[in-house]
Amino acid sequence: MNIGVIGSGKVGRALGAWLAQAGYPVLFSARDRSHADAAAKDSGCGALAMDTTAVVQRADIVLLALPFTEINSALEPVREHLSGKILVDVTNPITSDHRALSIGHTDSGAEEIAQQFPTANVVKAFNAVFAEVYASQRAKIDGRTITIFYAGDEPQSKASVHTIIAALGFDPVDAGPLENARYLEPLSLLNIRLGRVLGFGTQIGFSLLR
Amino acid sequence: MNIGVIGSGKVGRALGAWLAQAGYPVLFSARDRSHADAAAKDSGCGALAMDTTAVVQRADIVLLALPFTEINSALEPVREHLSGKILVDVTNPITSDHRALSIGHTDSGAEEIAQQFPTANVVKAFNAVFAEVYASQRAKIDGRTITIFYAGDEPQSKASVHTIIAALGFDPVDAGPLENARYLEPLSLLNIRLGRVLGFGTQIGFSLLR
């Protein structure tokens, strides 16, 4: 299962490297090709950098690890290759000051992506955990496993995303249809407030006790 | 510290009974007085039922455990007694079909309450845990403690709410200013979807790993 990572910022690099080290073939792309090259080199384990078209063509699962506002310009040129692809929406539609969500409780960033690119299978996931956790490659905090919620409408795509979440050692929880991204995106805001403003730092995560 | 509970539905009864059994003087009120009487009787431990005016006059902390849409009509008649009271907003502004939030990411139910009743100190808390958890009087699931997030603008009020959360055995986490209720209210929707729709049941809760 090839995993594409569009965007080579903090989240994309950390998550891509971890997936590569977990044994998945990882393909990076970025608006600035040198960033993708660096991400692939740092990841090792055979991770490659290529242009976004090649990533989307070859990948079974494509992680959208770029700013929400750049998704359309990144995907529009590869629209024809998106049919049936699993797009994992790692982003959050956050205002530029990082203080609020720009898309509301009657909609979500993930749903907007799905509407824009209806032939792809969008799954919301990985959006409420700090890049620093991915960079640390530790799915547990104090011996307890972080839950990663995922939401989507296509069962097979969700199953695949479940598999990669579990492969990293996280606790995957099916949070239902893509519509529920409306509640996963605010969770990331809570995470950001706790970690960056309220003193908990970035090595935090939510666990669903059940 | 007297604790008032306005509303004697599932949440109010369960949380009030638990607080009473934890040693706090608990005062119930309800639109239908017989419901408050029943809640007080079931709680035991000296819990009392009275009208909302008396509850608000006597209580140091008032839990709003009634439907969000009934808050204004419950509090308007006691507006003059609210000055300096700690109002703990346990509610969520949920649409009548329980499928969405009726107030969005640029506002929250808690902030609306604070705006309506500016002399009171509103603290958002207890809103993302099922009544069934309160009824079970277990703050732990599988040996792990459920986190209760609270948000508010007045430090002393927050400290008091922190104290009662801890008294029940929960893990209290300061989630910042009341504005952050915008992110705690969606958390309750996620909780509801997981528990009621996605098969996890009601004995669930979130834990902040750190």
Short recap of the structure:
The structure is a homodimer of 210-residue chains. Chain A has 210 residues and is α/β, with parallel strands linked by helices.
Question: Which characteristics define this entry?
Answer:
homodimer; 210 residues; alpha/beta; Rossmann fold; eight-stranded mixed beta sheet
Provide an overview of this structure.
The structure is a homodimer of 210-residue chains. In chain A, strand 2, helix 2 and strand 3 form a beta-alpha-beta unit. In chain A, helix 1 runs parallel beside helix 2. Helices cover 38% and strands 20% of the residues of chain A. Chain A has one domain: NAD(P)-binding Rossmann-like Domain (Rossmann fold), CATH 3.40.50.720. By secondary structure, chain A is α/β, with parallel strands linked by helices. An eight-stranded mixed sheet of chain A has the order 3-2-1-4-5-6-9-10, with helices on both faces. In chain A, strands 7-8 form a two-stranded antiparallel ribbon. Chains A and B meet through helix 8 and strand 11 of A and helix 8 and strand 11 of B. Strand 11 of chain A pairs antiparallel with strand 11 of chain B, so a sheet runs across the interface.
